[in-house]
User: Which sequence fits this backbone?
């Protein structure tokens, strides 16, 4: 049975180092600026969808064009600062998500290729172990720990 490679790629050490360096640069820029919410906190706050974002941007225009209509309890400068920051990060989040999704999908295919080859090797070692091929039994017993299965039943003897 031939194994189909779903994907074949490799990264040079230089490429991995460059990815790590660029991620470190992004992390350094974002340090102290991004917040990590706990799962329960994420549920506490609403998400602003694209339609709502358009509405918020429209409100910003009205706040600037008609400042006399803005309630005193709204800090327009802070509103504008928050809006600009959100507008700066949202397209980058989309780009990062696309990169992460591509990496995750690639990792899935790589994992599938690896698992298929590994299980084929394991099955071959099992067969070789059953045929008492030197060295196969030790490898099989080591690898078989991944698949403990059911213990073999002990037959009762009636005495």
Assistant:
């Amino acid at each position: 049975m031939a194994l189909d490679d779903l994907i074949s790629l490799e990264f040079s050490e230089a490429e991995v180092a460059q990815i790590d360096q660029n991620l470190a640069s992004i992390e350094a820029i974002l340090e102290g600026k991004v917040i990590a919410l706990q799962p329960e906190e994420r549920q506490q706050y609403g998400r602003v969808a694209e339609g709502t974002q358009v509405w918020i941007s429209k409100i910003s225009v009205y706040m600037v064009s008609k400042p006399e209509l803005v309630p005193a309890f709204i800090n327009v400068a802070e509103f504008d600062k928050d809006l600009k920051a959100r507008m700066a990060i949202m397209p980058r989040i989309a780009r990062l998500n696309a990169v992460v999704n591509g990496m995750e999908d690639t990792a899935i295919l790589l994992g599938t290729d690896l698992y298929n080859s590994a299980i084929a090797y394991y099955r071959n070692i099992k067969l070789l172990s059953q045929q008492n091929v030197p060295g196969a039994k030790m490898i099989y017993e080591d690898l078989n720990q991944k698949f403990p299965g059911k213990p073999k039943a002990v037959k009762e003897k009636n005495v």
User: Anything to note?
Assistant: The mean pLDDT is 92. Residues 37-146 form one domain. Helices lie at 13-30, 39-44, 50-65, 76-130, 136-143. The CA atoms of residues 38 and 44 lie 10 Å apart.
